Each structure stands twice: as C-alpha cells, then as structure tokens.
Amino acid sequence: MIERKVGFCGAGLMAGALMEGMLEAGVARAEDLYAADPAPQRREAFGRRLGENVFADNAAVAAACRVVVLSVKPPVVPVVAADIADRLTADHLVVSIAAGVPLGALREVLGTGRVVRVMPNTPALVGAGAAAYCAGADVTDADRELVEQMLGAVGVCVQVAEKQIDAVTGLSGSGPAYIYMAIEALSDGGVLMGLPRDVATTLAAQTVLGAATMVLETGRHPGALKDQVTTPGGTTIEGVRALEAAGMRRAFMEAVAAATEKCAQLAREPEAQ
Ligand SMILES: NC(=O)c1ccc[n+]([C@@H]2O[C@H](COP(=O)([O-])OP(=O)(O)OC[C@H]3O[C@@H](n4cnc5c(N)ncnc54)[C@H](OP(=O)(O)O)[C@@H]3O)[C@@H](O)[C@H]2O)c1
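Structure tokens for the assembled complex are given below, as produced in the milestone run.
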C-alpha cells in the first residue's frame, strides 16, 4: 500500500488508467488520491472516484500531496510546472509521464532533482502496460519503490538509465502499433486461407497474447520456445521459412531502430514535432 498522497496534474486518459489501476490493485485508497484539470467534465469524471479531492488548480494538488504526477501533454508541462514550483518542498516527489521531456528540463522548470521520468505505453489503459522509468539525482529508494508500485498496478515496470529511454520509446512505446499490424496481417492470412474475419482476428490476437504469456511466464528464450513448436519437416517450420524469406525479424529490428532514432531527433530538435 502506498502510504503517501498522490496527485495527478492532468486528469486525462493515462491518469485515469493509473488511478483505476492503483485502486483496483489495492495499492492506494481513494481518499489518498487527488487530481487537477481545467476541464469541468474531466473533474466530474475523476470526482466520481475521488470525491472532493479534485481541483481546477494544480497548486492545490501540490499542496495536498507529496507525490505529484505530471500527466499532461508534453507542451503543457512548463505550464503545470509554473503552477506548482512554488509549492514543492524537499519532501515532494514529481513523476512525469510526459513523453520526451528529459530529466534535466524537468529539474530546470520544477527546481527539484527529486523527479522521475516515465515512458508508459497505451496498453496501460487495459492493465497490460509496459513502462520504463529513469530517476533524477535526488530520488530515494522509497521513491523508486512507490513508482514501481504505481506503474506495476497497470502492467510491468522496469528502471533504465535515461540514455536508454529513446530505445524504450522505440520498443515498448511505439511497439503496440507494430503488434497491431502483426495481428492484422495474421488475420489477413487467415482470411486468405478461408477463415471468417472475426474468427481470424480473435485467433490472431489470442495467439499473440498466448505466445507473450509463454515468454513471460516460462522465462525461456523465445528462440527455444519457437524450437519447441517446430517439428522437423513439419508445417510450422514452413511458416518460419516464409517469414525469414520476407525478412520479418530484420523488419522488427529496423522498426525499433527507426523509432528510437526519430525520438532522439525530436529531443534534439523539438521544433521538428
Ligand atoms: N495515452 C497514452 O497511451 C500515452 C502513452 C505514453 C505516454 N503518454 C503521455 O502521458 C501524458 C498524458 O497523456 P494522455 O493520453 O493521458 O493525455 P490526455 O488524455 O489529453 O490528458 C491530459 C489532460 O490534461 C489536461 N490539461 C490540459 N492543460 C492542463 C493544465 N494546465 N493543468 C492540468 N491539466 C491540464 C487536459 O485537458 P484538455 O483535454 O481540456 O486539454 C487533459 O484532460 C502525455 O504527456 C503523453 O505523452 C500517454
């Protein structure tokens, strides 16, 4: 159970997923969660879960909570920082989930090094996220534990060095799009071979989920799991040969590399966004 009060500046999709996940996983009590958002309908939505702990003003969240989550779009981060910087004390931890905003920039606008930068991904909205975080200089072990509990409520969470965050963006940040394409393509293959679309898509998506669960739950190398299902001279190795001929593994590696490079370029030249 998280014993500190946690407040979200920005009551949007991602904050909602984190709030619901934390409540459902039992790592936080509703009375310990707060939120601020300028939009009345967003305050109303959060108010249904958090009662009176929802404000229009970010500074009220920083005053009420010792953990403040910046859950606004990246261009809004300096606006929220200006609202809360005066309220931050040495006891505050700030957790930013804004994509592409570096720890150095957060430290500068917030005036504290007790900052964590998180790269979440969209499946957090269904409790199956893959997030990575990096920690600023003044972050404590207890802060890290809190961040892992918070993000662990909506999926898995790992710590990385900040220089690895672009690669996280290229892999798990952008990765859901690659896998949606893989599911769509598998489904197309099923339709080509005579399956109805709904049946093909269900089988394709469940196969991806099942294979991923096998990797995570057995801890075995994916290559070893592939070997286990390829009978000598059988059907699956024929499919594997077709994928190799089409350069499937190289295509996935190139996708991660291209997205990582684009992310690094956007960090260098934000005006290119
Ligand atoms: N969604 C994802 O899958 C995902 C994945 C990775 C990273 N992220 C990161 O997560 C962050 C939040 O994304 P999201 O999808 O949750 O965005 P979102 O749904 O648009 O939520 C942001 C919320 O902040 C509100 N807001 C705007 N200005 C504000 C201010 N000055 N103070 C307080 N709140 C303000 C917005 O209100 P209005 O709508 O009225 O402007 C909106 O309700 C982003 O930085 C994004 O990069 C999201």
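The longest strand covers residues 129-135. Residues 173-267 form a domain with the ProC C-terminal domain-like fold fold (CATH 1.10.3730.10). Further analysis is deferred to the final report.
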